[in-house]
Amino acid sequence: MRKAEEDLDACKTAAEAEYLPFRALVGNAMAEGETFDALIERYSVYAEKNTEGFKGYPFHPGSGNWDERMRDAAAALGAEGDLSAPVYVNGGIYLICRMEDVVCGEYQPDAETLEELKENLLLQKQAEQLDELIAGWKQDVNVVIDISELKMPAAY
Question: How far apart are CA 142 and CA 137, in angstroms?
Answer without folding.
Answer: 8
